[in-house]
Amino acid sequence: MKYETVVGLEVHTELKTKSKIFCGCTTEFGGDQNTHVCPVCLGLPGVMPVLNQKVVEYAIRVGLALNCEILQFNKFDRKNYYYPDLPKNWQTSQYDLPICLNGHIDIEVGGKTRRIRITRIHMEEDAGKLVHSGNTISTSDSSNVDYNRTGVPLLEIVSEPDLRSGEEARAYVEKIRSIIKYLDVSDVRMEEGSLRCDANISVRLMGDEKLGTKTEIKNMNSLTALQKGVEYEAIRQAETLEDGGTIVQETRTWDDSKGMTLSMRKKEAENDYRYFPEPDLVPIVITDEQIEAARQSLPELPDAKMARFQADYGLSEEDSAILTTMRETADYLDEAVKAGADAKTAANWMLGDLSKMVNEANITFADAKVKPAQLAAMIELINKGTISGKIAKKVIVSMWETGKDPQAIVEEQGLVQITDTGAIEEIVKQVIADNPKSVEDFKSGKGKAIGFLVGQVMKLSKGRVKFSENGKDWIIAETFERINLKVFSLYNIELWLYIIPYE
Question: Quick check: 238 and 3 in contact, CB under 8 A?
């Protein structure tokens, strides 16, 4: 490829505080337009902001989790610009002395691990929300402003231009989202705007060190949109250069319906914002004790948890990665193991049947209707031979629908495995008596006939015939001396089936 894509990301996450950053208004999502506001967040004359200390605490936690240096003397600044979603005509943010500097995270794409540097993390207030009559501002006849979001506390996480593709950009945001979710400082819901991302994109000839002219893309409200937006813009810029054109430094919007970026406005330079220290807020001084307390409060983070799942639970790297992406999922597995479940078995159920039910219900494992202890109890019933794996699939559905424990469901529905050899023998005799042709086919060397007979045994027993004991798979276990047994192989599994001799 002739051109190299260069991407830097600005990730904005709303913090999960009860009140806004400088006033007592609620941060609750939704509500009628312009009802979660007060004179402070609207910037009316004669009011003074008061810093929410919880915002500082959350910022320190995020900074430590992203391997940042915590700046113990930092301050707020006024970022001046004139958009209708900013009622004061400035945004209270941080400029030259942000709370966090020089961090990094590692991402894995295509089997390769890359370290992405984080330039800074700073605290700021959110702006209002423009409500367009059309799909985008460029296709709208009018726009209204909802100021409910104004003053909601934000952290802006700014990366270095270390990303090289839309796929890497997506992986980076996924990793950031996962870490912040583990910290429980934000809902990180892109669909609600509590996690947003602006991408700065440029292209350059392969081998060049100098950065090209960048554009900034906004309005990407999903990971898929982010990846597509980066990929489209990189191609657009490369084609423009190939055609002899120049790249204009501008802000563009992503139009998901058209699958393309559209020009919004000229991109401001840093000096256009005319930063100066916020005169209504004193500088923030953070002590060593505060930093250490925040460090001690950090949970086990995704990378560490993933390594532990592989080392202690014996899970594969792929399964560990899936199970640790969301804290709720990882915690569920830990709780199931704590309740006595084998880690690999519990993980298989979580990645299979349980994941399907959780996804269909559009919830997380934290709200799963089958609790970790219930999953462990069901696995124990399988291990004891009370139910089979096939029956367990029915049991877990009933557990999800009713909330009942597996033992109660098994007893109520009569799902206990048939283990008595005499009872099994009677079932097999009945199947053989009802299917003489299949028996003859089997005796004449047609091995596939046994599959049908096995199926009939399971059908007649409603799936309750036990198939294993002491590691050996079987339908009926008797001695060669008393009963003439035939051994057959089905799907590389050795099964025993009682065949009544005709001679």
Answer: yes
